[in-house]
Amino acid sequence: MADLYLAPMEEITGYVFRNAVSRHFGHIDRFYTPFISPDNRIMKTRAGRELLPENNRGLNVIPQLLTNNAGLFNEAAHLIANMGYGQININFGCPSNTVAAKFKGSGILRDPILMDRFLDGVFDGKDSILKSFPSFRISVKSRVGYNDTSDLPKVIEVLNRYPVCELIVHPRIKKDLYLGTVRMEAFDYVVANSKAPVSYNGDICSVEDYERIESKYKESIRGIMIGRAAVADPGIFRRIRTGEKMTKQELYGFLNDIYETYKKDYSPENALSKMKEVWTYTAGLITDEKVRAGIIKSIIKSKNGAQYKDAVTVAFSHMI
Ligand SMILES: Cc1cc2nc3c(=O)[nH]c(=O)nc-3n(C[C@H](O)[C@H](O)[C@H](O)COP(=O)(O)O)c2cc1C
Which of 242, 268, 291 lies at the terminal end of a domain, its last residue? Predict the structure, then answer.
C-alpha cells in the first residue's frame, strides 16, 4: 500500500497545520515543509520556527529546500542535519515566475546541465552534506517539464546519476501551474525510467482517486502525496485508510485549533490572513457555487476575529 504524504504548501501546511492535522485526524506517513530558501539567516527567520524540533514532535517531517546553489544547499543541510533531521527534499517544481526565471524550482527543468552541476555539488562536492553525514538522504519533488515534456528524458538521466532516495512527481509542466489535467504519460515515463523510487502527487481529491492510482501502479510507487484536497478536507487521509468521514464538528474543531495556535504564534492580522488562505480551500466543501462565492467573499472581507467568526458560522450553516 502506498504511503500517504501531506504536500508542502507555502503559507499553509506549515508546523501549525501539520500538528493539528496529525492530532485531529492522523494517518499521514510523512509531512513535507513548505519550501525554505536557504540563506545564512535560515534559522533566524520563520524557517527556523518551521524546523524547530519542539514544533514537530512525533511527526515524520522532511524539510524542503528551494535553491540551485550547492554551497547554500550544503550549508543549510548541515544546520538541518544537526537539528536531527535525516532527509531533505529538493524543490524542482515551483512554477512561480520569479523563482523559475532564476532557474530554481521548475526553472531548472529547462537546464539539465545546470541541474547536473547542482546535484554534483550536493552529492559529491567537497562540502557535501554526505561527507559529514554519510547516511543523510536527499529526495526530489519535481514537475515533468518547463514549456513541454521534451526535456524529461534528460532530466531523468541526470537524476539517475545520483543516489536520490525518492522522486515525488507532480505530472504537470511549469506552464500548467495547478490547472488542467495531469500528464499521466509523463508520469508513466518516470515510473518506467527512474532509478529512484517514485511517488505520485496531483489532483487526489477522494478515496476513489487514491485507489485508482494505487491499483494502477501498485508496488511501482512508494507514496501518494495530497495537497489542496487535504487543506479543504484534512480528514481525507483517515478516510482513505479507515473509511471514516470527517464530520462538520471535527472540521470546526480543527479550524478553531489552528486559528488559536496562529493567534499565539503570529500577530492577529497574520493569524487572520492565514485562516483566509485555508478557507479558499475549505469553502470547496460548500456545494452551492453561489453560496460558496458569497461565503469566501465575507471571510476574505473580515477585518477582525469577530467578523471572521461570524462569517465562519454562516459557512458552517451551509455545509452538509
Ligand atoms: C498555495 C500553494 C503553495 C504551494 N507550495 C509548495 C511548496 O512550498 N513546495 C512544493 O514543493 N510545492 C508546493 N505547492 C505544490 C503542492 O505541493 C502540490 O504539488 C500541488 O498542489 C499538486 O498537488 P494537489 O493537487 O494534491 O494539490 C504549492 C501549491 C499551492 C497551491
Answer: 242
Q: How many domains does the chain have?
A: 2
Q: Residues 250, 233: contact at Cβ < 8 Å?
A: no
* 271 and 238 inside one domain: no
Pocket test for ligand 1, best of 9, 92, 141, 212 (most atoms within 8 A of CB): 9
CB neighbourhood size of 202 (10 A): 25
Indicate the residue among 208, 242, 276 that finishes a domain: 242
**pLDDT tens per residue across all 320 residues of the chain:** 999 999 999 999 999 999 999 999 999 999 999 999 987 677 777 778 999 999 999 999 999 999 999 999 999 999 999 999 999 999 999 999 999 999 999 999 999 999 999 999 999 999 999 999 999 999 999 999 999 999 999 999 999 999 999 999 999 999 999 999 999 999 999 999 999 999 999 999 999 999 999 999 999 999 999 999 999 999 999 999 999 999 999 999 999 999 999 999 999 999 999 999 999 999 999 999 999 999 999 999 999 999 999 999 999 999 87
Closest ligand 1 atom number to CA of residue 89: 11
Instruction: Say if CB 122 and CB 70 are below 8 A apart.
Output: yes
pTM for the predicted model, two decimal places: 0.97
Tell me, in angstroms, the distance from the centre of ligand 1 to residue 8's CA: 6
**Is residue 61 within 8 Å of residue 77, measured between CB atoms?**
no
- Domain region containing 283: 248-317
Distance 153 CA to ligand 1 centre (A): 23
